[in-house]
Amino acid sequence: MLTKRIIACLDVKDGRVVKGVQFRNHVDMGDILELSQRYADEGVDELVFYDITASSDGRVVDKSWVNQIARLINIPFCVSGGIRSVADAKAILNDGADKISVNSPALETPEFIAELAAAFGTQCVVAGIDSRREDDGRLQVYQYTGDASKTIKSKRETVAWARQVVALGAGEIVLNCMNNDGVRQGYDLDQLRAVKDAVSVPLIASGGAGDYQHFADLFQATDIDGALAASVFHSGKIPIPDLKAFLRAQSIEVRV
Amino acid sequence: MIAIIDSGGANIASVQFALERLGAESVLTRDAAEIAAADRVLLPGVGAAPVAMQTLKEAQLIEPVRKLRQPVLGICLGMQLLFGRSAEGGTDLLGILHGDCRAFCPEGGRSVPHMGWNRLRPTTTHPLLAGLPDVAHVYFVHSYFVPVNDATIAACQYGEDFTAIAAMDNFMGCQFHPERSGQVGARILQNFLEMPR
Predict the structure, then answer these.
(1) Extents of the domains making up chain B
(2) In whole angstroms, what is the distance from residue A92 CA to residue A96 CA?
(3) Catalytic residues of B, which ones?
(4) What is the overall mean pLDDT for chain B?
(5) What is the arithmetic mean of pLDDT over B5-11?
(6) ipTM of the assembly?
(7) Of B18, B135, B157, the CB nearest to A74
(8) CATH number, span B2-193
């Protein structure tokens, strides 16, 4: 049986791993290579690197660390941030990344996802979606979330956009529920379920993990394929081996 | 020397790095003579079957690959290429192993692609499987699969059983990515490197 994936997200800013609360006030969390190796050794199933400054700064960032990570670790990893052309994506994949994730550039030019899928196959192309539950209950996609001062609400509704990115060729979606991000009160199960029901590709939950039970709740109450978290892993509050033992004890299949 | 056939897909680098971690040197090549002379050959593949077959055809590698006598390991799409025909674009493959490649259908809550860590179930003994733990998970990313057949030495289950590892004579293949499958994947690659010629 396919196991549920536990994914550590490393937000990268100027070559360091950082973490903010609700996308603000970034705090240094450590060296990329050291943290990546530690997670691989501890049995995390996948790593995602988000360069959170790239899209909102309008620059392509130094990605020499991609190649260093590919040489170092033996688990899959995905790179996101400032990938604006097929050539950008190709450079990262050639450096050894397994997948690339696009977010703001896809909102500007949805066809970009189709170009990436045609060039590298859908399995390489992840769509990142930052979604906020508005006061009236509607789920809305946000853009340029790497920088709080530049974040804007896009015109797109979350479930419709999820359907569209899959139709264009995204092979996976990471749904970041912004209201829950960094506040450690659990994943937004209703929102995740709404998106999962709309698409056929794997869906990864992001935003809200604060306790062991939040992961169990996610996997018991939904068909979500994986859980992504950052601060609870970086801080050591939830060690990966302990989390997996906890989930296994609740009959949730995870990788040994 | 290990030859990695440059089948045109991206992230071939990770295969090369995995060999590096095991202390093995490799060369990325489309040169038929270099491939024929190698101690062992890896056939990676990411992307679509029609594109990969077209690349091999243009490089005039189809016959030379079929004639290889040293250990050959196909990875992911590279394993599928060893078989007869793929439902992906109705493509004729290398035809070295018997069996066809079908598409996973998204049904009953099953996401497609099949992406993530799933459990290997050995169906026989084979040097490639030596020393694996009883519960061995490996990393898959694919939308097409080869049903279990005569060449299957390890199966996996995703709604239905499919071939996770195939082996017939000197030709072997992994549907998953051993280069991204942690200690288990490293052990399988090590086993491949240690197989007698």
Answers:
(1) 2-193
(2) 7
(3) 76, 177, 179
(4) 94
(5) 77
(6) 0.92
(7) B18
(8) 3.40.50.880
